[in-house]
Design brief:
Blueprint lengths: L1 H27 L12 E2 L4 E2 H19 L10 H23 L12 H26 L4
Antiparallel strand pairs: 1-2
Length: 142
């Protein structure tokens, strides 16, 4: 249960800080036009987009909190988190989530999105690594 809570909290917070920072940087570099901290409501419940994204980031945080520590020791730290996010989360987004939403796989596999999305997710993964440790320590979990 501790892993679930720590993973969710870290994933939620990492979306708010690191994921959005990644898209902000991409926007400033002219590589994307992603909405940052959008309060536009999303179906089916009408919650603001940013809360929906943070919720899904929390769920991915739970998955990562179970997967990343089981990676080989050479990549279990920040590199493991960044690879998990850049590869696994990106592939699930491209090949499952987008088609479910009616968008083409990989959003059409156009540049610069082919690079921006995995890099932004890697930012989220770095945030996970930075946040999950203090979350565990705050609850005296190791």
């Amino acid at each position: 249960m501790r892993t679930i809570i720590a993973g969710f909290v870290a994933g939620f917070l990492s979306v708010l800080a690191f994921h959005q920072l990644g898209f902000y940087i991409a926007n400033e570099l002219g590589l994307s036009r992603a909405p940052i901290y959008s309060m536009q409501s999303v179906a089916p419940f009408g919650v603001p987009w940013i809360l929906s994204a943070a919720f899904w980031g929390g769920l991915w945080g739970i998955v990562g909190a179970h997967v990343v520590p089981r990676l080989p020791r050479s990549i279990e730290g920040p590199i493991g988190w960044m690879l998990f996010a850049a590869i696994i989360v990106t592939l699930v987004n491209w090949f499952i989530v987008l088609p479910i939403k009616g968008a083409p796989m990989g959003n059409g596999f156009r540049m610069p999105g082919l690079v921006v999305v995995p890099v932004v997710y890697a930012f989220w993964g770095l945030g996970m690594w930075l946040i999950i440790g203090p979350v565990k320590r705050a609850f005296h979990w190791h």
